[in-house]
Amino acid sequence: MPAVLLPVLVWAAGCHSYHIETTVENRTGEVIRLLEVDYPSASFGADHLAAGAALHYRIQLRGSGPLKVEYTASDGRQVRVDGPMLAEPQEGRIGIVLLVGGKAEFLPQLTPQRPN
Fold first, then answer.
1. Structural contact between residues 104 and 69, judged by C-beta atoms closer than 8 angstroms
2. In a domain, 51, yes or no
3. pLDDT, tens digit, for every residue of 8-29?
4. 3-state DSSP call for residue 106?
5. Is residue 4 a part of any domain in this protein?
6. Is the pTM here over 0.85, yes or no?
7. What is the tally of structural domains in the chain?
8. Buried-state track 44-58, b at ≥16 Cβ within 10 A, e below 16
């Protein structure tokens, strides 16, 4: 292998994006509006999520911080639920199940399991 390519290969091997496949399920029994999921360095969401519907999104972790979910319930009440801490180099999946009464269940399947 030419010596010129060696620095490029070393650089490419050191670059890795940490992703988490995220699914938000609405099990509140009602439509929710203005859904926002905040995670370290970014957020995603939807204008509404029907009862029984799911939203899938792939997040890319940069840094560390808590996962937070906010939405407007069908009665106009603002709901905010704090989830687990996330950090590079975690990868995997996390399920977020929105429940009746402004509660949520977080189902992480991440490696490594705890942020550094």
1. yes
2. yes
3. 544 555 566 789 999 999 999 9
4. strand
5. no
6. no
7. 1
8. ebbeebeeeeebeee
